[in-house]
Amino acid sequence: MAKRRLTKTAVQEAIHETKTKPFADQVSLTLKRMDGRHEVSVRLFDRLDDPRSTPAGEALIGHLEASGWAVTHRLGRAYSTLTVSEPVSAPEEG
Hints:
Blueprint: H1 8-17, E1 24-27, E2 31-32, E3 38-44, H2 55-66, E4 70-75, E5 80-85
Antiparallel strand pairs: 1-3, 2-3, 3-5, 4-5
């Protein structure tokens, strides 16, 4: 899978392609971090200690990581959130 720019639309397409819409509740707008990288949050329907423990979570996270993006999980009071971000670029060697 080719690496592509991280956008809300790209994350929504990943949800559609992996058929995980019942797992993912909302997708936020694309945010630009202070370091220039982009970030998108995905609110999950359930509060999960480990989203990879479900087939839908494993499929969606695997697809996002295969696209070259970093995925982190945050456990909230009522729901879990996946934060998808562009990875930190490795410094170029000269």
